[in-house]
Every structure is written in structure tokens, then in C-alpha cells.
């Protein structure tokens, strides 16, 4: 008797779209990340103890502020390669560095964490991912790529957004934006499952790193605070940081109204200091065995 075909019950996570980015979002990201992701990135670079002469891959480098900072740490004897799948963000990085005076120890390329086959095996001392890991749906695959390009004894540093800390409700900022999205007419267009962030907690991070051939030396959840001057700025920051995926699932003509609806909900969170978003950051450093 022939069996019915096996239909997978779970559709593999497709991950965020890379098609929603724009020149305006890339420019906003460069400006808005300077006081946010760039600051946490510098701390991650310190956690990694990046030294002069080292070869560093900044994977998911965005508009490249952190890669440029690390180029100063490694100095002329070292090298930094910034890789990002969004061509517009790589263009911003390249244009800024060209304007400031190109340096021999820094380069940017379009590339994807899921396929680093163009890079030499064991060609790097350090791989750094700042605010990127939660955008990668297939973490074992990406970690396998990082293990391949790192030399034995090389280090990986990951700073990422974890799921809610035990017992914490979803952060009010995300809660407010999500509440706006379930109301009509936006609720008719639910975001496809697996197409936004996929977060891991500290235990999952440890297990993933160990399985991929790394020995963790630091795994820590740290408090993080972001302040948004206005509700509109909070929405724009989320759009720029998600390279358009915050609203990318909606028909384009609904997006302006969706921004307004989110801002309206967020207005309830305004304080004299702005919207103060207290959250968490998971930081991991591990050595390639
Ligand atoms: C919030 S930004 C962080 C940018 C930068 N690391 C920083 O610290 O400012 C997230 C970045 O992850 C990148 N990203 C998303 N999917 C990726 C993938 N498959 N491979 C590499 N980078 C990816 C995005 O293109 C985006 O630039």
C-alpha cells in the first residue's frame, strides 16, 4: 500500500527579508545606532580583548561604525573585514570611510553569515556579531560558518537581544507596537512566523556554541537602556534596526498609518526624559577549539 506523502508540520523559519531596506533607513541607522548599537559594540570589542595585529571579521556590520572602530584597535598590522547582506548599508560604510580617507586595514563587502565560503578557512583571529545574532534564523548553520573562518584559538563575540528575562513581561515598547499591529486594518496582515527575530537565552547560546566547536568563556545577560526622544523616533529606530522588517509585512500604502498607530500607543510611555526602554542584552565570548 502506498503511503501518503510526508508533509512537514513545521515550515522552516525563513528569517527576515533583506528586501525592505532603503537609502533612508540605512542613513537613519547610521545616525541612530551611533549612540546605541555602536556603544554596546565597543563594549563587546573590549570583552573580546581585540589586540593590535589581529584579523577581525565583523559579520552583519551594518553601516560599519564598529568595524571602523575595531580597525583602530587592530592598527596597521591588523585587518578588519565588515560583511553585511544589505548593499545599501555597505555603501554607506564605504562612502563614509572613503570620505574620511580610506585605510588599508579596513574593507567592506556584501556577504551573508549563512555562506562565508568566499572567505579563507582559518583566516581570522576574531569574529564579532553585534546586534546581529537574533536576525539569523539558522544559528547552527551560521555558527558552522564562523567556526570555519576562525583559526583554532580564535574568538567569537556575540552581543544579541535575548528573549524576555524569566518572569518579565514583554517590554512595554514592543508590547505597544504589537498592540497597534493587531488592530484593524493591520491585523488582517499578520507577520509570517519566523520572519522577524529569533532569540536565544543564555543556556541555548552555550549549547549552540559548544555544539559548533567553541568553548564559551563569557556568557552574561546585562541590562540595557535605550532612550527615544519621541514615540515617532522609537518607531523609526525599530524600522531602521530591523532593516524595514518592522512594517515590511504590510502593504506599502498601509505603512504610514501603521507608523502613526504605533506612535499613538507609544505616546502613553512618554516621560520627561522620553521613552525609556529598559531591556536586556546577552553577551557571549567563546574560543574556537
Ligand atoms: C541591528 S543591525 C546591527 C549592525 C551592526 N552590527 C551594528 O552594531 O551597528 C543588524 C544587522 O544584521 C544584518 N544581518 C541580517 N541578516 C544577516 C545575515 N544573514 N548575515 C549577516 N548579517 C545579517 C543586517 O543586514 C543588519 O545590518
Folded structure, characterized:
- By secondary structure, the protein is of the alpha/beta class.
- The protein has a domain at 23-165 and 194-224 and 278-288: 3-Layer(aba) Sandwich (Rossmann fold).
- 35% of the residues lie in helices and 22% in strands.
- It contains nine helices and seven strands; from the N terminus they run ααβαβαββαβααβααβ.
- It has helices at 23-33, 37-47, 65-74, 87-100, 139-149, 172-182, 202-211, 231-241, 255-266, and strands at residues 55-59, 79-84, 106-110, 124-130, 150-160, 214-228, 275-288.
- A seven-stranded mixed β-sheet has the order 3-2-1-4-5-7-6.
- Strand 2 (79-84), helix 4 and strand 3 (106-110) form a beta-alpha-beta unit.
- Helix 1 packs across helix 8, helix 6 (172-182) crosses helix 9 (255-266) and helix 8 (231-241) packs across helix 9 (255-266).
- The chain is globular, with a radius of gyration of 20 Å.
- Mean pLDDT is 94; it is low at 5-12.
- The protein binds S-adenosylmethionine (SAM).
Amino acid at each position: 500500500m502506498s503511503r501518503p506523502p510526508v508533509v512537514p508540520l513545521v515550515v522552516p523559519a525563513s528569517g527576515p527579508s533583506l528586501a525592505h531596506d532603503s537609502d533612508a533607513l540605512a542613513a537613519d541607522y547610521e545616525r541612530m545606532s551611533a549612540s546605541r548599537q555602536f556603544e554596546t559594540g565597543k563594549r563587546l570589542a573590549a570583552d573580546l580583548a581585540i589586540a593590535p595585529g589581529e584579523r577581525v571579521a565583523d559579520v552583519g556590520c551594518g553601516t560599519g561604525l564598529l568595524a571602523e572602530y575595531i580597525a583602530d584597535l587592530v592598527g596597521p598590522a591588523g585587518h578588519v573585514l565588515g560583511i553585511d547582506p544589505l548593499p545599501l548599508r555597505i555603501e554607506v560604510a564605504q562612502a563614509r570611510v572613503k570620505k574620511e580617507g580610506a585605510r588599508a586595514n579596513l574593507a567592506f563587502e556584501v556577504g551573508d553569515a549563512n555562506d562565508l565560503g568566499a572567505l579563507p578557512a582559518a583566516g581570522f583571529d576574531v569574529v564579532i556579531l553585534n546586534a546581529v545574532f537574533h536576525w539569523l534564523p539558522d544559528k547552527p548553520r551560521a555558527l558552522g560558518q564562523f567556526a570555519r573562518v576562525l583559526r583554532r584559538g580564535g574568538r567569537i563575540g556575540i552581543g544579541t537581544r535575548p528573549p524576555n528575562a524569566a518572569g518579565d513581561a514583554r517590554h512595554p515598547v514592543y508590547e505597544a507596537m504589537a498592540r497597534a499591529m493587531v488592530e484593524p486594518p493591520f491585523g488582517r496582515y499578520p507577520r509570517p512566523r519566523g520572519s522577524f527575530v529569533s532569540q536565544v537565552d543564555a543556556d541555548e547560546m552555550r549549547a549552540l556554541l559548544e555544539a559548533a566547536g567553541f568553548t564559551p568563556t563569557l556568557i552574561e545577560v546585562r541590562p540595557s537602556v535605550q532612550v527615544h526622544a519621541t514615540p515617532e523616533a522609537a518607531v523609526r529606530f525599530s524600522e531602521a534596526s530591523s532593516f524595514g522588517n518592522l512594517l515590511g509585512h504590510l502593504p506599502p500604502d498601509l505603512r504610514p498609518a501603521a507608523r502613526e498607530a504605533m506612535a499613538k500607543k507609544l505616546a502613553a510611555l512618554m516621560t520627561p526624559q522620553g521613552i525609556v526602554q529598559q531591556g536586556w542584552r546577552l553577551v557571549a565570548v567563546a574560543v574556537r577549539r
